[in-house]
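pinging the channel bc i need a second pair of eyes. not urgent but kinda urgent?? the chain im working w is below, pasted from the shared doc
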Amino acid sequence: MTRDVITVGADSTFMSMQQIFEREAFHHLLVEDNGLLIGVISDRDIMGNITNQLRKNKLRIPQVVTAADVMTKKVITVDSETPIQTASILLLENNISCLPVVDAEYMIEGILSWKDILHYYIYNT
């Protein structure tokens, strides 16, 4: 897992999230409230939201689109003791590309992406 996670708050704007995605080499942001996971946003979520608004002719100015508007709220998570095989199955069966790693209270500990899992299988098995 990647422990050094950049998080955003629910009120983070489209522009601030887009800047993070442009600056960093990852595709997911964890949305938190006082360290507790409340959602996940992918770069595709942001672009999908803008595309849907364009189709509906209701494009809001990107500065007013917030993390709360586009985040996935029902998040599939794992804990730090979840076996790599179980995490792999969760990614495949749910057609997702990352799993937030949280403790029993939902405090964010890291994130596990399909790239992390692939890296493990290539270099550690």
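so The chain has a mean pLDDT of 89. and Residues 27 and 102 are 19 Å apart (CA to CA). — does that match what u expected or am i reading it wrong
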